[in-house]
Amino acid sequence: MTFKELSEKRHTIKTYLPNNTISDEELQKILAAVYLAPSSNNLQDTNILVIRDQKLKEEIANDFEGFNTQNVKDASALFLFVGTPFKMQMLNNGQSIYDGTMKFLDIPEADRQKMKEGVLQYYGVMSDSTDLVHIINAAIKFSFTMLAATELGYGSTPMLGMQKCKLEKTLINKAMMKQGQQVILALSIGVPAPDDARNKAQANRIRLPFEETYKIY
């Protein structure tokens, strides 16, 4: 399936068929594709929490709003994209930045340290995007996840209808994320209810005329 075909096939799901699980093999295929997603300066500052356990899904569903609550319960899996703000990356003189990338480079140690200091200098002092970089990186992984799930035949629902503070508190209390990290985006995937009118309507959403969506200079 080409990228264009994947993009045409993907649309937001309003209702899932419950009791459909995603296999370990399929889940690994999705995660393997998402693993290759780029991140700014290779910071790799996004953790993905994949929730398949039904009891846990039903508990976490209480931290969502509207139709999203039922979707969390009925979906085959809920993906939560947890970003680590750069100020956390800077702790211990940027040790997590070094450990994530620099220490694996086949270059002298002095050059590794120089690269780390360059990243700390850029995002710590020079960049206007420092407070956004973990959000941007999470969004890239989010997009990869949607298309990887579509390739396997799953429907997906981007969900902004979450009670963010409440959800983060739940995850911190369960030691699923650290204090200071942020839930950036949530995505449910599952088997769409084939006869649901809202699902059919989503497949035929009207978009702006193509030529109005871009400019070439």
Automatic annotation (TrEMBL):
PANTHER family: NAD(P)H NITROREDUCTASE YDGI-RELATED (PTHR43673), NITROREDUCTASE (PTHR43673:SF2). This is Putative NAD(P)H nitroreductase. Gene3D superfamilies: NADH Oxidase. Keywords: Flavoprotein, FMN, Oxidoreductase. InterPro entries: Nitroreductase, Nitroreductase-like. Residues 9-190 form the Nitroreductase domain. Belongs to the nitroreductase family. One of its GO terms (molecular function) is oxidoreductase activity. The keyword Oxidoreductase applies. It comes from the Bacteria. It holds the Pfam family Nitroreductase.
